Each structure stands twice: as C-alpha cells, then as structure tokens.
Amino acid sequence: MNTALKLAREYGVDVQFADLGDWGVDELRSEYDPQGPTIRINTRVAEQLSPSELGEFVAFSVGHELYHHRETIGEIPRLNERKDREIAANEFARKLLDHQ
C-alpha cells in the first residue's frame, strides 16, 4: 500500500472517487471534506490518465489533501495565505511520494 493511502487509513480519512464537476481551464484534482473526513479524487481527471499515471496521481492527491486534514485537526498550524497552504500541501505530497 502506498504511503499516502496508508496514512489516510491511519487518520481515519475515507478516500473516494467522485465527479467534482467542470472547472473550465482550471483543474480540480481532489478535495478534502472535514465532515467525513473524506478525500474525493476527481474522476474527470483520473479517467484521462494511463494506468501507470493513475497510481501516482492518486497518491499525490491523497497526500495533498492529508496536509489539509492535518491543518483541520490542529496537527500543524494553518498558514495565513491560501497560496502558501497549497504550496505546503504539494510539498507534503511530494515527500510522501518519495517515501514509497
């Protein structure tokens, strides 16, 4: 099991595939819902990927959203600027990919 999915399980975060809608030129890859808590992976993006690309896409997306989960539960401080939070979430996801 990849690191991000294992960590999601440990945190009790459900991972699902869902159609997250059309975002025009922007691409919503995934979203975090603290009410689940749930991470939803956008099927519109996933369906465009080859099987070899899909695994990394899912792992990265889950890692990114787990960063936001960690903010929500108070494990890490929430950065003031959205841009900084997104950069930090991407960095966290990349580190998890490196540990697979």
Walkthrough of the structure:
This protein has 100 residues and is α+β, with helices and mostly antiparallel strands. The chain is 52% helix and 14% strand. The protein has four helices and three strands, in the order H-E-E-E-H-H-H. It has helices at 3-11, 43-46, 51-72, 82-98; strands at residues 14-18, 30-33, 38-42. The protein has a three-stranded mixed sheet with strand order 1-3-2. Helix 1 packs parallel to helix 3 (51-72) and helix 3 (51-72) packs across helix 4. The longest helix is centred in the middle third of the chain and has 22 residues, at 51-72. The chain is globular, with a radius of gyration of 13 Å. The mean pLDDT is 92.
In short:
This protein is an alpha+beta fold.
Overall mean pLDDT stands at: 92
Strand adjacency order, main sheet: 1-3-2
Structural class: alpha+beta
Beta-strand residue fraction: 5-15%
H-E string: HEEEHHH
Judging from the principal axes of the Cα atoms, what is the shape?
Answer: globular
Index terms:
100 residues; 4 helices; 3 strands
Summarize the SSE layout with pairings.
Elements: H1 3-11, E1 14-18, E2 30-33, E3 38-42, H2 43-46, H3 51-72, H4 82-98
Parallel strand pairs: 1-3
Antiparallel strand pairs: 2-3
